[in-house]
## 1
Amino acid sequence: MEKIQLLILGSGPAGYTAAIYACRAGIQTVVYEGLVPGGQLTQTTDIENFPGYPNGVNGFQMMEDFKAQAQRFGAQVRYGLATRTDFSARPLRVEIDGADWVEATAVIIATGASAKYLGLPSEEKFKGSGVSACATCDGFFYKGKDVAVVGGGDTACEEATYLAGMCRKVYLIVRRDVLRASKAMQERVFNTPNIEVLWRHRTREILGDANGVTGVSLDNDAEGTVVTKDIDGFFLAIGHHPNSEVFQPWVEVDEQGYIITEGKSCRTNVPGVFAAGDVQDPTYRQAVNAAAAGCRAAMDAERWMAENA
Ligand code: NDP
C-alpha cells in the first residue's frame, strides 16, 4: 500500500494553499482533486474579490494558478475521490475511487461544500450565464438589472439585501408564506424598497436565450396561477451541503454536516486529521477564507507531525 506523508483531499483554495505551505515546509504532499477539480470557483465566472487580481480573474484560471503554484513546490496532484476512510488506527487509511487504499501520516480534508440546486434542467443549462449560487461572487455583473433570489433563510435574505444595493429590482422567491430567516434579517428585507417578496411561489423553469437568462416562470401557489418575471440573473440560496459524509464515521460534524474544528485551529477530533475551507465553515464561505484555513491546516499538520510522527 502506498504511504504518503500528508494527504490532502480536495483541490479548491483550501486544498491548494495547504499544499503550498506543506511542500514549502518539506513535507511530502499528495493532493487528490476530488469530484470537481479546482472546486466551486471553477463553476463561476470572474472572481473580482480575491486580493491580488486588480482586474479580476477567471475562476478556472485562478484555480489553475493555485495548482501550478502547489506543483512548483513539489505537490503531487492526482485525479481521484476519497470513497472510504479508516481513521481507527495509525497510519490513517483512505480509499480512492472505490479501488486502492493509501496510507497517510496526516490528512487534510478540504472537500468543500456544494450549493444546493433546485434540480431543474434549465438551471443546469444557464449555470454561469445567469444562474449563480453566490451573490457575493457574481452580483456585481447584474448592476442596474433585475434579478431573483430563491430561498427563505438567512442566506437568501442576506443575498437579496446585498443584491438590492446594486440591482434595480430583486424578487425573493419564497415557497411558504413565512421566512425561515432571523427576525433581524427579515426586517432588512421588508425595509428594502426594491425587494419584492413573492410568497408561496415555486420555480417552474428558468427562461433564457443564447445570451443567458431572460426570465423565470413561477407557480403562484396562493392563487393557483403561473406567472413570469423578466430577470437577468437567478440566484440560488436554498442552502449548502458540506462534502463530509465519507469522513463521518470518524470525524465529528455539526447537525448540518460541517466538520467541527477546535478553536482557531483546523484540528478535528481525530489526531492527525485536519479540516479546512467550506467543509468546516458554514459562515464565511469565501475563497480567501478557505485559502487562509488551508494555510492554518498545513501549519497545524506540520506541528502535529513534528510532535507525533
Ligand atoms: P437554510 O437551510 O436556513 O434555509 C434554506 C431556505 O431555502 C429555507 O427557507 C427553505 O425553505 C428554502 N428551500 C430549501 N429547499 C428549497 C427548494 N427546493 N425550493 C425553494 N426553497 C427551498 O439555509 P441558509 O443557507 O439560509 O442558512 C444556513 C445556515 O447559515 C443557517 O443556520 C443560517 O442561520 C446561517 N446563516 C447565517 C447568516 C448570518 O447570520 N449572517 C447568513 C447566512 C446564513 P423552507 O423555509 O420552506 O424550508
Note: The mean pLDDT is 96.
## 2
Amino acid sequence: MSKQLYELGERPPLGEVPEKMHAWLVRAERFGKPTEAFQKEVVNTPSIGDDEVLVYVMAAGVNYNNVWAAMGIPVNVIAARNKVGEPEDFHIGGSDASGIVYKVGKDVTNVKVGDEVVMHCGTYSRNCAWVKKGGDPMYSPTFKIWGYETNFGSFAQFTRVQAQQCMPKPKHMNWEEAAAYTLVAATAWRMLHGWESSSIKKGDVALIWGGAGGLGSMAIQIAKAAGATSVAMVSGEDKFDYCMKLGAKGCINRNEFDHWGILPHWKDNAGYAKWLKGVRGFGSKIWEVLGEKRAPNLVFEHPGETTIPSSIFVCETGGMVVVCAGTTGYNATVDLRYLWMRQKRLQGSHFANTVQCNEMNQLALRGQLDPCMSRAFTYEELPVAHQLMADNKHPHGNMSVLIGATGFGLGVSGKPAVTMVHPTLPKGDVHTTPAPYPISAPLPDIAEAEAITIADDGTKVRDLMHRGIISCTPDESVGAVAKIMVDKEIHAVVVMDKDGKAIGVVSQTDMVLARQGRTPDQARSMQAREIMTPGCATCDADLLLSEAVSLMTGRRMHRLVVTEKDLPVGVISMTDVVRKIIE
Ligand code: NAP
C-alpha cells in the first residue's frame, strides 16, 4: 500500500505517485516580498494529460519570473489562470528543473518512467492550428511559460510538464547544476541561432551584454561553440577573467563610459554631439579589444533602454541587434538613419521552441556548456533565494534550489565528451544594478477591453482637467503617499523620478492591494515604487474629451496625466467625466 505523502528527500519507489506532495506555494493574499509570499504547504499531486509527464523534481532553477509571480506584479498569475477556468487558488512556480520521470501520459513516446531529465519551460497546445500546420510554437497564441503562466512548476516534489519539455539530463552535471541552465541557455540559443541569415556563424563577432549574467554567460559559450569571437560587456574588471574563461576574446567595463541612456533628440545638436563622442569612444574600445577594426555583426541585447542606442550604432552594416528584455526600461530609442542606411536589424526574441531547446541541450550534453551555477540553496531557503534576487543581492550566474535531492553535488553519473575549465565568479560577487523590469509586462491590445465612445461635443481635456500634478518620489513611504491622498482628496498620486519623469501611479486600489497580507505598519513603511502601477499613460491637453474617454476605457484606466508641450501639467480622471455627465 503506497503512502499518501512522502517526506521531503524520501523518494517514493520509482513510478509510485503519492496522492499528496510538499510544495512552496504563493497565494494572492500574501503577494509581496518573496520571503513572505512563498510558504510551504501540502497539496494534491497534479494529474497528467495524455501528452504530459509527471516528474519527481530533484532541483529547481531560480529565475526572475517567480520573483514577479510572488509579488503579484505586473500580473496576478493566479487570477489570470482562474479567469480561463483553472480552479487552483495558488501558484506553484518554478520554470527550470532536473528530475526523474515518474509517470507518462498514454501518448508520450520520447521519455519513460525512470529517465533522468531536465525540462525547458516552453508549453503550447498540441491542438493549436498554427502548431499543427508546422508553425513555430513560440508564435502560438497558446504559448505559455511553465511554472509562471502555468501552475505546478518545479517548486514541489512533483511537477507536471508536457512531454516535449523533457530533455536528457547531462550525466556529468549534478542535480542542481542541471536545474540551472535551461531557461537562460535556450533563450540565448534562439537569440543567436534563431534568426535565419543573421544567425551566428564561424568568424562572426558578437558583442554580449551582461557577460557574467545568466544569459550573457550562456551566450559567450554558444558563440564560442559556433566558432565566433565575442566581446563581453561587464560592470567591473573583476569579472573579466570569468568571461574570458567562458570563451570571450576580451571584455569591456561599461563603467568606463557615461553616454548610456535614451538617445538625445537629433535636433539637440549639443546633446547629440556629446552622445556621438561617447558612443564613438565605445566603438573604438571594441576595436581595441578585438585587435582589429571590426564591428560586431551580432549584438546580444537585454539591458534595453540604456544600451540599445549604442548597440545599434556599433552594430556592423547588415548586422543584427537581438533583444529579449528591457532590464533597464522599455523605451529603446533608435536613430533610424543608422538602421536603414546601414541596413541593420533590430530583432525581438523570446525564449525558444522545442527544437532550439534540444539543439542547445546537445551542447550541454557534450560538456560544451557550463551551467554557470553560482549558488545553490536548500529547500528551506527557496524564498530567501528569490528575495536575494528581488533585492538584487544575488551573485551573477545562475542559481538553483534542492527539492528532492538530499544534498549538494549528487546525481553525477558520467563524464562529458568535452571537458572545460569551470569558471568561478569573483568572491563575494553580487549584482550592483537595479532589479530588472519584468519581461512579462501585459501589452495593451486592441481586444483588451471594449472602448467606450461618448458623444463629442467639442469639449477638450483642458476644459475639464485638474491643473497641477500631485506627485511623490519613488522612495516616499506608502504612509506618506496615503496622507497626500487624504489631505488633497485625490484618488491617485503620480510617481516622478529625480528627472521629473512620471514613472508610475499609486492609486487607491494599489494602496488596498499593498495592505493585503500585511500589518498596517508593514504596509505604511513600504515605498511608493513597490506598490505603484508602473508606467504612466498621458494625453495632450488639446485632445478631445471623447477620445480621452475611449483611451481610458479601452485600456481599463481611471486617469491620464495631461501634458502640454510634452510636459506633465495636470490629470484628467473618469471622476471628472462622470461629474460632467451629471452636470
Ligand atoms: P542577470 O543574471 O541579472 O544578468 C543581467 C546582466 O545585465 C547583469 O549581470 C548586469 O551585468 C547587466 N546589466 C544590468 N544593468 C545593466 C545596464 N544598465 N547596462 C548594461 N548592462 C547591465 O539576468 P539574466 O538572467 O541574464 O536576464 C537578463 C534579462 O533578460 C532580465 O530582464 C530577464 O528577465 C530577461 N530574460 C528574458 C528571457 C526571455 O525569454 N525573453 C529569458 C531569460 C531572461 P554587469 O553589471 O556586469 O554589466
Note: Residues 64, 183-184, 187, 209-210, 212-216, 233-235, 239, 254, 302-303, 306-307, 324-325, 327-328, 350-351, 396, 431-433, 436, 439 surround NAP (CB under 6 Å).
## 3
Amino acid sequence: MRNGQVLVKVPASTANLGPGFDTLGMALSLYSWIEMEPVEGNTVVELYGDDLGGIPTDKTNLIYKVAQMVFAEAGVDMPELRIAMYSDIPLTRGLGSSATAIVGALVAANALSGGKLGEDELFQIASRLEGHPDNVGASLFGGIVVSSWDGERAEKVRLEPHADLEVLVAIPAFQLQTEKARHALPAKLDLKDAVYNVANSSLLVAAFASGRLDLIPFAMRDKLHQPYRAPLVPGMSVILERATEHGALGAALSGAGPTLLALVDRKSARKAELEAFLLDTLRAHGIEAETKWLTPDKRGPELTAGAAGNQGSFMERIKGEVNA
Ligand code: HSE
C-alpha cells in the first residue's frame, strides 16, 4: 500500500437475533474490504468479487457518498477518490452488506481525514443512514451490540459473545429487498405479542450477558416480525419451529432475510444433522441455499494505513484472507 491509502476490513452482521427487532445485532466472521485514497484525476470505483454487479461505480456509489459526508463533517476537501472493494458478503440476503459498506466508508474516510470523528459520531451517522442501528452497530463495534435509536440518537452496549457460540447460516439463492420485508410488517401489534417480544428480547440479552446459553432456545422466539415475513421465505416457519429439535440453540431470520441463522454450541455433536435439516427443509420448499459455518466476529473494523514501500495490487493485499 502507498502512503495516503487506507484499507478497512469490515465484518458482516446479523440483525434482530429473533425477538430484538431493529435492536440486536451480532458481527459475523464474513468480511468486506474497502480501500480508499484521494486521487488527482477522476474518481474510480473498482469492484472485485462475484456478487457486486449492479453496484454503481460513479459518484452515486454509496461508499463514495458516505466518504464525502465524513469529509464535509471533518472540514476536509477530497472530491476525487479511488475506491476498491471486495466482498465475501452476499448482497440483499440479510447479512448486513449495506451496513458494511457504510461502516467501511466511514472508517476509511475518517482515517483519511485525520481521525477527527470519534466512534460515537460514526455510530450516529451510520444509524441515521441505515435508519436503524442493529447492523451498523455490530459491524462497527464487533461482538453482540444491543442498541436503541430514537430517530435522533443511538445508544448501545456491546457484549462479548460467549466463546462457545457458533453460527450456521443458510443463504438462499434468491435476494430479498429489506424494503419489501419491512412492508410485510403490520402497522399495529397486539399488546400480548408486544409483551412477548419485550420479554424474550430482554431475556435473550440477559442470557448473552451472563453466558446462559441454555436460555437461548426459550428466549430466541419472536412474534413481532418473523411470522409476517415467513411467507417471503418458503420453509422458514418449519426451520424456526424445529431447528432446536436438530441441535440448534435457537434459530432466526437473519435481519430482513432471506438468510436463516442458527446459533449452535461449538461443542455440539449434531452440527451435520442441523445443516442437513436446514438445507433439506429449504429444498423441500423449492429453495436452493448455501450454508456457511461462522463465528461471531469480536474485533469490528480493522484499519491498515499505507506506508511507503508496501506496494502490490488491492487483491494481492487481501489475498489469503478472502474466500475468492
Ligand atoms: N432490523 C432490520 C429489519 C434489519 O429486520 O428490517 C434489516 O435491515
Note: The chain has two domains: 5-160+299-318, 165-294.
